[in-house]
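User: Can you fold this complex?
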Amino acid sequence: MATPKTVHEDVWKPSVCYMCYNACNILAHVIDGVVVKIEGNPNSPHNGSRVCAKGNAAIMGLYNPYRVTKPLKRTNPEKGIGVDPKWEVISWEEARAVVASKLKEIRDTDARKLYVLTFDMQGFGTPGNVWATAFGTPNVSTGPSGYFCGNALHPVSWSVHGTFFQEPDYDYTKYCILFGSQHGLAAFTKNPGGLAPKMAEARVKRGMKLVVVDPYCNNAASKANEWIPIRPGTDTALALAMVNVLLNEEGIYDREFLTRYTNGPYLIGPDGCYVRDAEGRVLVWDMASGTPRPFDAEGVQPAIDGTFEVGGAEVHPAFHLVKEHVKKYPVERAEEITTVPAATIRRIAQEFGQAASIGSTITLHGKVLPYRPAVVDWSKGAIAHQHGMHAGWAIQLLNTVIGAVDVPGGHLGVSAKGPDWEPTEGPDGMLVPSQRIAFLGIPYPPQKPVAPNTVEAAELFPFASYAMPMLPDVLMNPEKYGLDYRIEMMIQSRSNYLMTSVDPEAVTEAFKQIPFIVSFAVNIDETVEMADIVLPDTHVLERLDALPNRIYGWILPGDSDWYWTVRAPVVDPPPGVRPWVEVLYDLAEDIGMLDDLYSTFNRNLKIKDPFKLDPGRQHSYEETVDAYFKSLFGAEHGVEWFKQNFILKTPRKLEEAYPRPFLKPRFPIYLEHFQRQGPQVAAVTAQLGLEDWDVSDYQALPDWRPCSSYSDRGEFDLIAINCKQAFHSFSYTVDAVWLNELTDNYPDAKAVVMNPDTAARKGLRQGDMVSVRTPDGKEVRAVLSLFEGVHPEVLAIPGVHGHWARDRKKYVGNPGPHFNSLLAYDLKYIDKASSAFDACVKVKVARIQAG
Amino acid sequence: MKATVTVCYTGAIRTYTGKRSESFDLQEAGNLRALMALLVARYGKGFESRVFVEGGGLNNLARVLVGEVEVPELPVGMDTALEPGSVVTIITITALAGGENLDPGVHEGPGQRHGIRVDQS
Ligand code: SF4
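Assistant: Here's the predicted assembly.
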């Protein structure tokens, strides 16, 4: 009989999940240094005791036998999809020397030639900003997520709320419409652990109605009161038609809110610009005096509709123009565009408007606030299109006209106002996000478009937060964008660009332009296979990341505490495996930039005395995090405190939870400055010789415009879309094999999914092997699955499948179709306002083999 | 000997200036605004757009410090007079995900605004 093993350690250690970006707070059960179970942290205000399948399965990534544990060097100079890199194991010393020498050479000549590609925003974000700033390169980007992510969401959220993220207020709302979003019901940033219970409670306690607009009956739609199937890329038309019903049929809008908190009263002249007085102050029409007066004049009573005369010209308040503009979208026209029946559009708009109960108030913590328990939220499904920026603005108008912005029951910015930060009043009295939480590009005050200096050419997208989809074209043709350098080195981590952007062949060619690629990797994915040097990185359960529940994004909004957490290692990494940020900080010493690193650290993060890093000596990475924490939270709240106690909470005041009634700056319903940027971008692009750069989307009010997939479909009669799976994030969750087993047992997970009526018309049957082709000559092959929950004109392709990396093929099983391989890389598919890449494509489907 | 101020560049702004630091004659750049105008004239629109937004405010990814004090915290901001030996630092942040440098409202002792809530895991 075997002797029972003596257990020396049996503990539950707190940390933060990173199988998606929601940053759920977890407890890992560790027995003798081995993680045996992961559960939610019942003490967490973020997700409580709940974790999803991915969070549970993180263990399998930790113990994946194909993990990289030693530095590797490529010996095959040929690079390409399916090409064996012929890795050779090398020592850390050799790897570090090679990498340091290249970094030093670049920093000493032209720091821009280093490009850092990662979506590790929670781990790399803060220390990485510091490192890259000290190095001197402007070329750091968030990876392929920037193709279809918040491209058209963040600029709207920054403008309206003054925050990076926005969320419905499930604590108080009674009517919620999701456009192309699985808010609270799937993962990524949409906190199923925290929000799904709130949604359930809202339905039980307040009878909240949930309506989901999506071409595919996704997780969220399957839980909704009503699923509204819509033709892909037409959400703008639906939203504008609903606004038209509210404003012009029902007369439902919050006049007081629009007058006080938006630029609705600002007078607009015949040129589409604000009407100003001789001193440049924006004018409104004062109903009391019957004259134009500055918007902020004492006692002014602005009109928000009507036609007036100023200086001999006919002028209108901005809101008047909105009201007139949406008349272009009667429900009958919207039905033609969207396929949503006119009666449904009208009914949903009416229900939404009535639920808003304009004029009602609620008393919270003894204070009376406006109460608008109706909200619309959207996500990438609605905005990852050729004219995505307009979709974001059109949908947000629904919240704005009913006054449901940053008030109980409405649409909330996550963190606009805090204990010592709040939006400020910028030019023309308009909202500027607090600099304390503003990062990436923010749209106001307006940025000036200039000739690019960066490899994203983000300078040509002055309203956007980033311009990631430009990367392949700029890498291939830097001179076309006026760049006087080429990228010579890429450092890459947690960003499988080849699979999660578009057109792997085009991206491969672009990456071949980079002479030296270093990947920090847990596993060898499709992008890592392009590397020259691979350095072993830690799994998320082995890392120390400061504040993963970032205050500007990954926390709950509304009437709850502020909270700060740490992603602490729950087990040691295998010998020789090191966190990539720690290695970068070590490399700073090798290349002689410690001084710059520490002074930038102290200044960028406003490190207080006595916690400032001393440029005279080297600090370990943990010491830098410790200094950061102590500077923020006080001497007793260093890394050790967080490791022991994990969550630090401070109460959020009512005016921080629902800031709008407490804020003076206004936000736009009419994008005057955006409109003015169009000609500026046109001038810069013309100077660069980019003659066909389309700036027609730079207009003050949103309009629906068709994606390429909308018209002239001919034999390419279906529109292929990607639908997200709750049990996978991007491509990296396949390294946790439990999730692959789950996927293989889920009927539609690796199929292409079609409506049965459509299939019958085509003579196709469940289980047929089919070919899916696009007019650009792209093709994927997959098994056909039939499901009534797909719009009849749509072919839904779930997840990110179709892995071809050599290691992954050993444990992924059936690869399934890769949706992104259907999207040809072409600038015409990029929204020139938001940089979103169009994620719908027309296809024809033909049987290859009967099922 | 001429009285001078030193300007240090951190971050990608160096790719416009081509140097890490330089000195200016105080007569040319008597206050911060005049100094910045001089730099914009010397280094062009790219430099300007990295540091300023329309209307003349600072870009959210730019920091300008006189000594160790940032412009928003200087009593007269861009009108701050420069003195012989002043060091002006211009940092353009390479932003991926920002840094949390806000006051979380955790204060001990007198003047405490919020209590800290610690729940043991
Ligand atoms: S939602 Fe995301 S962060 Fe939360 S448990 Fe699931 S994978 Fe982890």
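Chain B touches chain A through 50 residues (CB under 8 Å). The CA atoms of residues 68 and 89 of chain B lie 8 Å apart.
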